[in-house]
């Protein structure tokens, strides 16, 4: 009560810095941080300013979680799976192969105990997270040659990271780390054979279809990537409760807004990519099933030595299996009819 | 500037009343208004209070839009399609048969010009709307007997309203208006043959499976029902800009929260309904295709005499057709594998 009464009534001036995990060229995903920042500023008569910096302006993408942990910046907007090098648990709130789609991510995070579990882990790194965007199911990436069988994966040099890269490695793929700006020349020269990025709207800008015409789907390693706002726990605790409430609502608003923006932009992009010569290809059932098995083998291996990961992945998988029992009824049958049935 | 400077800095006291279109028993959908109201209160140190009233406490469900229009209450949280009697355009922002799923609703409303078109229409009724929740694809309702062919629809007395009822009527169904609390006894007595409500979580509470065991899917008239906050335009204009920003973010936060809650609750409910003897049945392709054709016939008829409706439905249908071209690629193929492929 004393601390509370010492605070000025109304809206005190607060200035924070946010380091995005993304370049400005990914305007939908980078833009979610600006949408969030504007909500917060508008809600506080401009008194709570959160300045958004693109990846690399303060720290790079892969340093963002550590910058929040150290208090170099108050917060970040990023994808947790960039930090699997610090701990594979970081991926659990973002996307893990063959798990939740975007709606199920939100259901698990907001109402399935997901955010509580993720934050219990993140607290060890002095991070408090709020879901802050989703891409929907991503594409499986660009390939210079068709891949039809498991044999075609062997020795394939693919730009793919994190748990997805480790899953692919079990099947003979050689995962490569290539920054976004170098993917095109690497594909062109044949230094790499394949690369995954995001989805049609973002991928189109980088022109991959000119050098790797086969565009595979679905991106089974990101059935519904959740972005998060990562906030330093000390800085979070210093905020007045009504600023915490504003940040919480603004993050949720940015979450729904970002997916809506992708869903509005991707349809034109996929058509334009196909018109430009992109060849759409589904991953074969043989490849999907082998990757599914490899991913779950990987989860068992990590779980054997990482109790936090086991807690998180067990929760996700149990939730996922329940969700798909329901989604196959109304949701899937509706989409199925709208895609296939009404054409007959 | 004069009006602005006359206002107190910070957070002035404002008290509003919100009439929900729903009873408290629908805790997920009714609860979205309480989630919203709490965000607004918490963000303003309790200075902006929005008291939530259940349907019937101030006005009934079907009077809520008019109560906002007349200024009897400042706002409502409701489903636009309840007001098709005032104008069929009211349904366009909520759900129209065989149109958008929940993600596509958000994409159209937030980034496809949907909210602008809907608000241009609603302004004629002194209403400003913000999307405020979604149910996902609903179920097709409870039937005392199996229906397999179009012949089985003839003379069927079904509790179904609005554009869905008018679509069904074209195929011989006799739509019935029955309040929620009277559905069970009406089905039990056989006064009606079928009734649609929401989905597993809500339907389970009312016990329909005991008197009408066939539970059909999908609810093609609500591929992704959007709820809205309806706000009186004069009251909206009176709010300080930062209160408008808070209301806007809180509505979006309630939007994503409500769907997440349904998605977390429905899986257990559908399993428990099946365990209790519910018989799940998909609508036959014959019935789906005939209903699809009837719905589009209805849209043409209404459009012929209602220019606002034509503007809205043309926008929705063009958007929908683009969306499903994209959704069939990554999103649908991912869900398809997760539902069917991984089991093999």
Label this structure with key terms.
six-stranded mixed beta sheet, D-Maltodextrin-Binding Protein, domain 2, alpha/beta, 2 domains, five-stranded mixed beta sheet, 13 helices, 344 residues, disordered N terminus, homodimer
Quick gist of this model?
2 copies of one chain form a homodimer. With 344 residues, chain A is an alpha/beta fold.
Structure description:
The structure is a homodimer of 344-residue chains. Chain A has helices at residues 2-6, 27-43, 64-70, 102-111, 114-122, 162-169, 183-189, 200-206, 233-238, 241-275, 285-305, 307-327, 330-339; strands at residues 14-20, 48-53, 75-78, 127-134, 141-143, 157-159, 174-176, 194-195, 214-217, 226-232, 279-282. Chain A has 344 residues and is of the alpha/beta class. Chain A has 2 domains: 2-134 and 225-265, Bacterial extracellular solute-binding protein, family 7 (D-Maltodextrin-Binding Protein, domain 2, 3-Layer(aba) Sandwich); 141-222 and 277-343, D-Maltodextrin-Binding Protein, domain 2. Chain A has a 6-stranded mixed β-sheet. A 5-stranded mixed β-sheet of chain A has the order 2-1-3-10-4, sandwiched between helices. In chain A, helix 2 (27-43) links the parallel strand 1 (14-20) and strand 2. The longest helix of chain A has 35 residues, at 241-275. Chain A is globular, with a radius of gyration of 21 Å. Residues 1-7 of chain A have low confidence and may be disordered. At the A-B interface, helix 2, helix 4, helix 10, helix 11 and helix 12 of A face helix 2, helix 4, helix 10, helix 11 and helix 12 of B.
């Amino acid at each position: 009560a004393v601390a509370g009464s010492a605070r000025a009534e109304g809206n005190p001036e607060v200035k924070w810095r946010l380091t995005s995990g993304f370049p400005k060229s990914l305007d939908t995903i980078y833009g979610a941080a600006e949408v969030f920042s504007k909500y917060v500023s508008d809600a506080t008569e401009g008194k709570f300013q959160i300045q958004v910096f693109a990846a690399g302006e303060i720290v790079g993408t892969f340093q963002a979680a550590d910058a929040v942990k150290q208090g170099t910046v108050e917060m970040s907007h990023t994808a947790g799976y960039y930090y699997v090098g610090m701990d594979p648990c970081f991926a659990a709130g973002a996307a893990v192969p063959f798990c939740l789609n975007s709606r199920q991510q939100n259901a698990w995070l907001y109402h399935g105990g997901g955010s509580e579990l993720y934050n219990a882990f993140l607290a060890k790194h002095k991070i408090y997270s709020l879901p802050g965007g989703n891409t929907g199911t991503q594409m499986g990436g660009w390939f210079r040659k068709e891949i039809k069988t498991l044999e075609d994966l062997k020795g394939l040099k693919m730009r793919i990271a994190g748990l997805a890269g480790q899953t692919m490695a079990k099947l003979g793929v050689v995962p490569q780390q290539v920054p976004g700006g170098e993917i095109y020349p690497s594909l062109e020269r044949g230094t790499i054979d394949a690369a995954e990025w995001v989805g049609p709207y973002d991928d189109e800008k980088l022109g991959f279809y000119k050098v790797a015409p086969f565009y595979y789907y679905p991106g089974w390693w990101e059935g519904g990537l959740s972005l998060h706002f990562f906030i330093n726990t000390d800085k979070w605790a210093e905020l007045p409760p009504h600023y915490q409430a504003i940040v919480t609502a603004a993050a949720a608003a940015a979450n729904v807004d970002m997916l809506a923006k992708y869903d509005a932009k991707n349809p034109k992009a996929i058509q334009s990519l196909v018109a430009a010569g992109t060849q759409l290809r589904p991953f074969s059932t043989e490849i999907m099933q082998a990757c599914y098995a490899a991913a779950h083998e990987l989860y068992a291996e990590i779980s054997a030595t990482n109790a936090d990961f086991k807690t998180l992945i067990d929760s996700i998988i149990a939730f996922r299996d329940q969700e798909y029992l329901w989604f196959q009824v109304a949701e899937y049958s509706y989409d199925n009819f709208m895609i296939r049935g009404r054409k007959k």
